[in-house]
Amino acid sequence: MKNLIRSLFVFALLAACSREDTVLISYENPELELEVPFGFPEFNNSVYTNKPTKYGVALGEKLFQDTRLSADNSVSCASCHIQEHAFADRNAKGIGIEGRIGLRNTPPVQNMAFMKVFNWDGNIRVLENQPLVPIITHFEMDSSILEVIGKLEEDPEYIELFNKAFNGEGITADGIYNSIAQFEYTLISANSKYDKVIREAGETFTETEALGYQVFQDKCVSCHSTELFTDQSFRNIGFPLNSDHEEAGRSRVTGAVEDFMRFRVPSLRNIAHTEPYGSFGQFETLRAVLDYFDNGVLEADNLDPILKENNNRIPLSETEKDQLMAFMHTLSDSEFIGK
Amino acid sequence: MKTQTLENMKKFLLLPAIALAFVSCSDDDVPVANDVTLEFNNTFNGKTIVLGDATSSDATINTSVEGQVHHFSELKYVISNIILVKEDGTEIPYNVNDLDEGATVIDQSKEETLEYVLNDIPTDDYAQIIFGLGVRSDLNTLDEVSNPGFYAEAGANDTQMHWEWGTGYRFTKIEGFYDTDNKALSFHSGSTVKASEDDENINVPGFDAYREITLDLPAMAKVGEHSPKIVIEADFDHLLSGKTNKILLDDSNATPSAHTSVSMSQYVDNIGGNGSSDITGMFSVSEVEN
């Protein structure tokens, strides 16, 4: 009996020792300081619950660029979310593996830390829930989270980076979702010419830009409001309809008749670099969008009241269009798009 | 006093021993638990459905109350959250929080999926069955890590019961044809609702397509010596001609976009009940074989 107790005691000691060894491996992973730019709204809640860290963001960026997230290792997030197009692309509709064409236009990934609702139809409210969607969608990456984890586990670099980012937890699904979201939280565009004018940081509008800003405030700002240049509401503005039978706009999410073909108001930041425009790239140029509003939009029961009150159009003279174009170009952030 | 207590003690000790002896004598052959098989019979008005393509001559053709002929080429739905209810009302939940062990995809084109065996149901008499058509919102997250088995079963190429953009499962998938010119009929249901409504920061205001079905058994399912089979009929005549809604198909509601936006709830209420006045939808128990 004594012997047994003694050996148990020794065993306990050994166990304690070895446990201490693992505890000793601690990971230095400082939180990043993100600042709310001048005039911007507060960060959304997830930025506080999934705080961007040095290695979390590094991991997220690496995953964002990694084609192993797709079934045939051909497509990464960055294939469609290209920096020089404000993390969108030039295709009318997203293109996934094997050239498969999706339902909608790739949305830019910018200022996500301030957005309360994501995607054209607002099906996502928490950014951490988004990365799974392209990974599993047939016409995007067509993979699965376990398939992705399996590939990443073969790469020692990833094992180390996950451990550093998430305190030794190894490669997990949540680690993938959280790190990609952390990286996206750092993609903040707030240093365009417009911002420098507003902040009085040594830039001034040209006369045309200033007049364009005036037209914008008269005819656009009720939807493209706040420093995000979207009020994040869902509206049917009578754009040409996507004939894909899967498309129903916001009502695909809510099931509500009044949400039929309503889409989230897009931000106008870096708008000069995200053509084509519209939920499925209906318009090749910004000018075409302005012409369409001027000529009149499609009638619908739930057409936005602002358009209904104005005979289904936003009247714009050719001069006003020139001015608006000039103003919208001041929303380009060359630092953000890397050129 | 003391001796009396001791005597009582003895009696008490004896009682369970006697009880045990009885139990082991009388129930010698009866196991403590046994299987229950659920058999799904998918019909139009009691006639088992034969699937077929547009011009099939074998397919079972149904006519709606609005007079529209229709037949199906594909018919799938998810059953989960199964609960057997004893005569006294006690509920025996069957792996209700584990989709791998407690949920299945019924696929009319695969005979093996039409029977689902519940293992180790405690020996007793059961009077009622409750199950979900679809997946409860709290489990409806396409979580492959937690439920790799069900994820694979639902997501297989020939099943396609993932609803990727909604990060949930398809609850029902019906493809078929209607009217004499065989126009496409396509009905997919699934929930888009996420999280709880009281947390507006994360709540996605969506549609809850999950329906809980409660069915009385026509005869007691006697689990123990027997492993009963409960035959559940799903009468898809209800899809267009339900207790809640009578649906006339046209260009605006026979394809998925219109379903998701306008009328998915009408179809869902028809086949799954409206959750209040109708808790059976298209389902009934036609037979219990003990």
Outline the structure in words.
Chain A is an all-alpha fold. Chain A has two domains: 45-185, Cytochrome c-like domain (Cytochrome Bc1 Complex, Chain D, domain 2); 193-337, Cytochrome Bc1 Complex, Chain D, domain 2. Chain A has helices at residues 2-24, 45-49, 54-64, 77-80, 132-136, 145-152, 156-165, 173-185, 193-198, 207-219, 251-254, 286-295, 305-308, 318-329, 334-337, and strands at residues 234-235, 263-264. In chain A, strands 1-2 form a two-stranded antiparallel ribbon. Chain A starts with a helix and ends with a helix. Chain B has four helices and 15 strands. Chain B has two domains: 1-30; 32-289, no CATH class. With 290 residues, chain B is α+β, with helices and mostly antiparallel strands. The chains are: A mainly alpha (339), B alpha+beta (290). Chain A binds chain B through residues 44-45, 116, 122-126, 129, 132-133, 136-138, 144-146, 172-173, 244-249, 251-257, 259-260, and chain B through 142, 144-145, 148, 151, 155, 162, 164-167, 186, 192, 194-195, 201-207, 255-258, 260-262, 264-265.
Which properties best describe this structure?
heterodimer, A: 339 residues, mainly alpha, Cytochrome Bc1 Complex, Chain D, domain 2, two-stranded antiparallel sheet, 15 helices, globular, B: 290 residues, 2 domains, eight-stranded antiparallel β-sheet, 4 helices
Mean pLDDT of chain B: 88
Report the principal-axis shape of chain A.
Answer: globular
Straight-line distance between termini of chain A:
77 Å
CATH architecture of the largest domain in chain A: Orthogonal Bundle
How do the helices and strands follow one another from N- to C-terminus of chain B? HEEEEEHEEEHEEEEEEHE
Question: Which structural class should the secondary elements of chain A be placed in?
Answer: mainly alpha
Measured distance between first and last alpha carbons of chain B: 54 Å
* Percent of sequence in beta strands of chain A: under 5%
- At the fourth CATH level, what is the homologous superfamily of the largest domain in chain A? Cytochrome c-like domain
The overall average pLDDT of chain A, rounded, is 93
Strand order of the largest sheet of chain A: 1-2
**Whole-number radius of gyration of chain A?**
24 Å
